[in-house]
Amino acid sequence: MNLARIAFLLRAVAAVAALATVGVVSPARAQTAVGSLPRIVQKEGRHALFVDGAPYLILGVQVNNSSAWPAMLPKVWPAVGELHANTVEMPIYWEQFEPQQGHFDYTVLDTLLTQARQHRVHLILLWFGTWKNGSGHYMPEWMKRSPELGTHIVDAKGRPLDSPSPYAKAALAADIRAFSALMTRLKAVDPQHTVLMVQVQNEPGTWGSVRDYSPTAQRLFEAPVPAKVLAAMNKTAGPQANWQEVFGADAEEFFHAWSVAHYIGQVAAAGKAIYPLPLYTNAAVRDPINPGRLPQYESGGPTDNVIPIWKAAAPALDLLAPDIYLEDSARYLKVLELYRRPDNALFVPESGNKREFARYVFAAIGRQAIGFAPFGLDYTGYSNAPLGAAKITEELVAEFALNYKLLGPMSREIAKLNFEGKLQAVVEEKGKPSQSLNFGSWTVKVSYGLPQFGWGENPPGNPEPTGRVLVARLSDNEFLVAGFFCRVDFQDSTGKQRQFMRVDEGSYQNGIFKPIRIWNGDQTDYGLNFTSEPQILHVRVGTF
Ligand code: DGJ
């Protein structure tokens, strides 16, 4: 090692030590090497969130809306710990962050960073800015008191609606200033990248009206469709063609999506120019099978039908993410399909917290998601029933904790295998007691509801659809298998009989699989049976 290199290393060590003494780096664990920014990487249509230069799987949880206050955090961290989450999604409230115009209050942000480091988790910050669920409720009071700042849209009858205008230039400028202040602060105080991503706004758009009908909106609606939108939607039209002429029945909806996305795109771009963390916006999804027509769903947000418009209008956003509370599994899975696109990394920032939703993290992973987070699992006493459970209990948290207990120690390996296209995963659906995973020379058979001992009758399915499993191909005849409440077996494509050459149960420690025992006899004679035990198998199969 030459002298220059030694000097450089000494400087780096001194810098980290200095940061630790001022409390910026947790002495317990510096989460991410200074300098390597989290980023979304795309390869052959698959995506990964790179953290510390390698794929990372977000095993997340989102806190309730009013839970990111320091006084509430003692009721948040126990649930995070029990869940074994590695990432927590926490709102940053504009009204708290900028209580007086131009005066930014960093105390809550700084507390979140400090406590996240103490609890050894990463954060995703949710910028509750101009839009929160289609309204502007998180705008600071000084904005709400200034009609020229907190402009509302008006419906077709000219009545003001509880939804911010995407044409309000002063509000946009204020949001850009505040979001820029947030990103500036983050850049300064988070060199170890405790924060992995930032969500820009929350479920933006408008409930109750397809679009704004103000004179400004009307003028823009009658103006030519921007060339970017035409290209994004594969439309050819004359340069003067307006929204109605180009898009007919969809014109108003597409116009509102463009307007909202254009506004948020500018907020995101300003933040990204300061500190280029991955940014995204979430969608209140529409029914993916029978969407119906507006106003049955929120207009203007990144619903599945307007993803290309959002991509064109807001290129600073790295991805558009679905919030999924749909009960029906076919609909839930369809939403995952719609947001898993070559131009969009799949990430589920909110998923329902009823117990039957626990299995869906496997469905998301099976579609190469970079992460997943059930909503509202904290002990602050609030529950978003009927969307979720009537009460957040330790028993409910334990249902979700099963997943992360199993996946946590191998989350890096899963993210890597997924990025390489080697992993598949499925969840049980009501009325579908068996499923197949095609790995070419091997088909993996998954069945639900069978006893552990004996071949059993046709699989009946579990009493509730709780089954879930992931399978990754490690080499031609070697697989990683892990799951709950299911039986897994292998079928050779040439029609020969399979035999288990060796089945190791073990755990991952620092990226290395450490076997603890070999499964055989009752444990393998009828297939590999997964129960509520978090068990990881390395399986070598052969034929005879
Ligand atoms: C979706 C929103 O994004 C969340 O902030 C929250 O309001 C849930 N709906 C419902 O609890």
Description:
It is built from 15 helices and 23 strands. Strands 4-5-6-9-10-11-12-13 form an 8-stranded parallel β-barrel, surrounded by 6 helices. Strands 14-17-18-23-20-21 form a 6-stranded antiparallel β-sheet. β20 (498-509) and β21 form a beta hairpin. α10 crosses α11 (307-313). The chain folds into 2 domains: 3-30 and 57-410, TIM Barrel; 424-543, Chondroitinase Ac, Chain A, domain 3 (Sandwich), CATH 2.60.220. The longest helix is centred in the middle third of the chain and has 24 residues, at 251-274. It has helices at 3-21, 77-83, 94-97, 107-118, 141-144, 169-189, 215-221, 227-232, 243-247, 251-274, 307-313, 329-339, 360-365, 394-407, 411-419; strands spanning 39-43, 46-51, 54-56, 58-62, 87-93, 122-132, 152-154, 160-164, 195-202, 279-284, 319-324, 347-351, 371-374, 423-427, 434-438, 442-447, 468-475, 478-484, 486-492, 498-509, 512-518, 528-530, 535-543. Residues 65, 133, 202-203, 323, 350, 375-376, 384, 387 line the site of (2R,3S,4R,5S)-2-(hydroxymethyl)piperidine-3,4,5-triol (DGJ).
Looking at the overall shape, the CATH architecture of the largest domain is Alpha-Beta Barrel
The ligands found in this model are:
(2R,3S,4R,5S)-2-(hydroxymethyl)piperidine-3,4,5-triol
As for the number of domains, it is 2
The CATH superfamily name of the largest domain is: Glycosidases
- How many E strands? 23
Strand order of the largest sheet: 4-5-6-9-10-11-12-13
- CATH class call of the largest domain: Alpha Beta
Radius of gyration: 25 Å
Number of helices: 15
- Tell me the overall shape: globular
**Which stretches of 5+ consecutive residues score pLDDT under 50?**
1-30
